[in-house]
Fold this protein.
Amino acid sequence: MDSIREIEGLVRAVYGELIEVLSGTADPVAAFQTRSVGTVVVGDRVALKSIEVEEGEVGWRVAGLHKREHCLWRSSRRRRSQLVVSNVDRLCIVSALEPPPREGLIDRYLLAAEWQEIEPVILFNKMDLEGAEETFRRLDVYATLGYEVIPTSAVTGVGIEGVAGLLSRGMSVFVGHSGVGKSALLNRLLPDIDLKIAELSQATGRGRHTTSVATAHPFRDGIVVDTPGIREFGLGDIPAELVSIGFREIHEREDGCRFTDCSHRDEPGCSIREAVKGREISQTRYDSYLRIRESIETGEG
Ligand code: GDP
Ligand code: ZN
């Protein structure tokens, strides 16, 4: 080979030791992971160096990894949480009338997003269903807190253009309870998603042995990450005393508590309990805060 070439790109999918990288070219580039850099995840920005795979044929290997920010972890009760996507700009939290949202699930996702400084957006899907309008109103509390809440329907197309506008910039990841319509929304937004799945480089002479838990798809000037292999994202390793980061209305009032390390449970002089009593903080959100904090303290995550 004449000389070693180097390119930069964004990890699009990970199939064991083989990865696919978006590097500005029409097709993703296949590359090998390397022990010196360590395991990469979807969203990572990497440098690739060319290698001679066979006489005259060029392949790529990972030669460098840029600093990761804004990460999402896969939750697991048994194992340590596992990093799945990095450099996420936006978390699209999908909820719907059916299946009804598990209590506190939106709050857990908001916490995961705020913790990693990822912009959360709440989508309420299946607006075409009878009774959806009424349930949608229950999300008013989030709009009041300043979050963007968008009603959508993957069936009628309501709200889809608005969502598409958001996804046109930065990297977005969809999360939510199974069955709320994440795939249906993604199919509507990325109808040719299957066509974009790359053929692995001929030069590597290998097919895919495993499936990628997440895959990044270019969408307009942005990137949308599909995570079919992930049942649920978790809270990573957020310390219990930082849970209020996910509760803006609590976080902004904490300075008013008598104790700087107030947990807002039963300490005297707690400004948060006062605010709940005075209905400035919703009881549901406060209960949710307590539940999440407790689940972290007891190690359930
Ligand atoms: P996911 O598990 O979140 O990916 O959910 P799916 O996209 O697989 O959708 C679950 C079910 O809900 C499927 O039967 C879809 O056809 C249905 N569904 C998805 N979006 C909508 C919607 O906007 N309206 C209605 N009525 N059904 C939907
Ligand atoms: Zn307090």
In short: The chain is about 20% helix and 25% strand. Residues 125-126, 128-129, 153-155, 176, 178-184 surround guanosine-5'-diphosphate (ligand 1) (CB under 6 Å).
